[in-house]
Amino acid sequence: MSIVADSPATVIPSGTWSIDPVWSTLEFEIKKLGLVTLKGRVPGFSGTIEGGEAPAISGTVDVSSITTFDEARDGHVQAPDFFDAERYPELRFVSTAVQTKDDELVVEGELTIKDVTRPVELKGSFVGTGVDPYGNDRIGIELAGTVDRTEFGLEWNAPLPGGGFLLPNEVVLKANLAAVKAA
Amino acid sequence: MKILAISGSLRAGSYNTALARAASKLAPAGVEIEVYDGLGLIPHYDEDLDQVGIETPEPVAELRRRIDEADALLMLTPEYNGSTTGVLKNAIDWVSARHRGSWLRNRTVAVAGATTGEYGAIWAQQDLRRILGIAGARVVAGDFPLPRAYEAFDESGTLASPLVAERLRNHLAALVHEASPLAVAA
Description:
The complex is a heterodimer.
Chain A: E1 15-19, E2 25-32, E3 36-41, E4 45-51, E5 56-62, H1 71-78, E6 90-101, E7 104-113, E8 116-131, E9 137-148, E10 170-181
Antiparallel strand pairs in A: 1-4, 1-10, 2-3, 2-10, 4-5, 5-6, 6-7, 7-8, 8-9, 9-10
Chain B: E1 2-7, H1 15-25, E2 32-36, H2 58-69, E3 72-76, H3 86-94, E4 108-114, H4 122-134, E5 138-139, E6 145-146, H5 162-179
Parallel strand pairs in B: 1-2, 1-3, 3-4, 4-5, 4-6
């Protein structure tokens, strides 16, 4: 099941594109102890990409789907110390500007976590377009950016015996988005 | 709304249990504070006893049930060697073992502490808040330290100082507010 990128375009083709969570990957990374990159994955999300003259990207994430691949740790990640999934079941992203600069796709937008909305900048590329085995037009977009988790009220940490803390404030967000042209 | 108060001291004359009783008298309108008295019956936590297919020790089952029935918890702790008490930590372990789910997950909890010393168990309360957060609880910010607890109560068990009583009322109000459905974000 492979697609062939037949147009290495640098702008998003016009039309409305529905993000396919099965083909896409939303991840975050945090460097524990300054040594080890821990990855979390967010399988439950949906979103839309608008191409053409007024490009835009928006989406929502089901917080209860966030996993770090460890049941005990996920219990804490979902709890009020971190995402507080019971009270804040959804994350939101809405772009405010989508531009292509020197072949780089730059997406500025507003990310809402725990009802706190902050501007974020994601950079990456528009990978291309293709037709999948079922005849659907697809596009691929790769984006990454860094946020300060404490700005969104995710402030939990643990002090280390030699000073400093277990977790940094910086969290890397990565989105590999596959989207299908809406009929 | 029902609040279950759990004192981390087993001593009959415990100042923390006295503080729990005093709190029950100061409960806001529409709020009932029950003082849990089964802590001394909880066995030492043993994962071998905490398995599917093995009958849960009855005092543990009762504590889990009481927590389920409560809308919020008030945990009171003395300070032993700079932290909370073994008996209270043991009970928390029984109701938050990861492989069985946590009865504390999303449960709103406030902490308080009474000591005969000058500091009112602030280290114990800090530790208790951290432990409860890891167990998944919604932990209300702030301490309620009651120092020099030997002079804090009158003969009827009421807090002698109106100022201290007012502080405790405010602490309970914060707990009730945090536990209320209205505090849930839209």
